[in-house]
Design a protein that fits this description.
Radius of gyration: 19 Å
Bound molecules: S-adenosyl-L-homocysteine
Structural class: alpha/beta
Number of helices: 14
Distance between the termini: 33 Å
Number of strands: 9
Strand order of the largest sheet: 2-3-4-5-6-7
Largest sheet: 6 strands, parallel
Helix content: 40-55%
Length: 347
């Protein structure tokens, strides 16, 4: 079958034409998914064997100056109850994260003006001083080149900034006019040139997304060569302009995880919270489709339900960092070993 041939080609050459990506993505069904998944697991095994890396996710603020149409913590959502963690609270969180065995701290948040370069650099430096063997990942949106440079110099190792859509028209349908596609791409290029391990990514089946858009995103991922890539299903939040749209599918997301693994066998690919929130066992399915990273939530429990990007976002059970033992057990059951280390990109 033609699609199997395309999957073989991708597994071997790690590249397809845009048209081939359209065909591959358009022919998602049980058989193509199963074939891609098996190839992806094989490719991942060669580099990372059966290891799954864990990251402790700390959501430091849900205050945001942006108004992304899909996001529950967008500025205009007046029903969102806002919070911001202090430096001390963040450091206390890191203690907990560390004691549970995590060696990467991911600080994620809205674009909150309180976190100036001075404030953030202080936080990053304090974390690195206390835990020199740990990696610090930031996911705090768009900042200037100088700001990223200072954060890198303060010790930050990695930065996650999803491109959201590499098709300009589509990007502009997801964001208000004061957000700029060019600026998003500029940020990703700056982060790369500064030596961060960079993560891009997108929501699967976000409103107005077409097969062509997905093909463009895959081609971008192929060419940009990010060290990480975050994809998860779009899930609506009622208090946003996209509240009435449908969620993406867990299986289709997993198919794309397999394809991304075949594009870049070395990539660090999380089975995201959105995937775990949408379907029972979603995260395990993501791992079985080629993902090799999980990022359980370790924000203080009092703020967890406030960082509500979409309805039904999981922050208890297997998405909660305190339950690491259960998470490890469920991954062990499917043949994966959760490792306690920084889990760096393998070149
Ligand atoms: N302010 C940071 C963090 C954003 S939240 C930044 O700009 O990078 C992290 C990711 O959650 C976003 O990049 C987006 O892709 C995803 N997200 C937001 N709303 C979502 C929704 N309704 N469904 C699924 N994912 C969503």
């Amino acid at each position: 079958m033609l699609i199997f041939k395309l999957i073989d080609k991708l597994a071997k050459e790690h590249s397809l034409t845009l048209d081939e990506y359209v065909q591959l993505v358009g022919n998602f069904d049980d058989d193509t998914y199963d074939y891609a998944r098996r190839k992806a697991v094989e490719a991942r095994k060669k580099i990372y064997s059966n290891k799954v890396f864990i990251r402790g996710l700390i959501e430091i603020s849900n205050i945001c100056k942006n108004d992304c149409y899909y996001c529950g913590i967008r500025k205009s959502n007046t029903l969102c109850s806002r919070y911001r963690l202090t430096k001390d609270e963040i450091l206390t969180c890191c203690e907990e994260v560390y004691s549970l065995g995590f060696r990467t701290f991911v600080l994620q948040g809205g674009e909150d003006g309180y976190f100036t370069d001075d404030v953030l650099c202080e936080i990053v430096k304090s974390i690195k001083a206390k835990y020199p063997e740990c990696a610090v990942t930031l996911s705090l949106g768009e900042r200037s080149y100088d700001s990223y440079k200072r954060l890198k110099e303060a010790g930050a190792d990695r930065y996650l900034l999803r491109h959201e859509s590499i098709t300009r028209e589509h990007y502009e349908m997801l964001h208000p006019e004061n957000m700029s596609y060019d600026e998003r791409v500029r940020c990703l290029n700056d982060l790369k040139s500064l030596g961060f391990q960079v993560g891009c990514g997108f929501m699967v089946s976000s409103p107005f997304m077409t097969l062509k858009h997905i093909a463009n995103d895959l081609k971008f991922i192929e060419e940009f060569k990010p060290q990480m890539c975050g994809i998860g299903p779009f899930i609506p939040h009622v208090d946003t302009p996209f509240g009435e749209f449908e969620s993406g599918s867990a299986d289709f997301t997993c198919y794309l995880l397999s394809i991304i693994r075949l594009i870049h066998p070395n990539i660090l690919l999380p089975a995201t919270t959105a995937l775990g929130s949408l379907a029972v066992g979603g995260r395990e399915k993501g791992i079985m489709s080629g993902a090799n990273v999980i990022m359980p939530n370790l924000s203080p429990s009092s703020v967890r339900e406030k960082y509500m990007l979409y309805n039904g976002k999981a922050f208890t059970g297997s998405e909660a960092g305190e339950n690491l033992a259960n998470i490890m057990a469920s991954l062990a059951e499917i043949g994966y070993e959760t490792v306690v280390d920084r889990g760096d990109y393998v070149k």
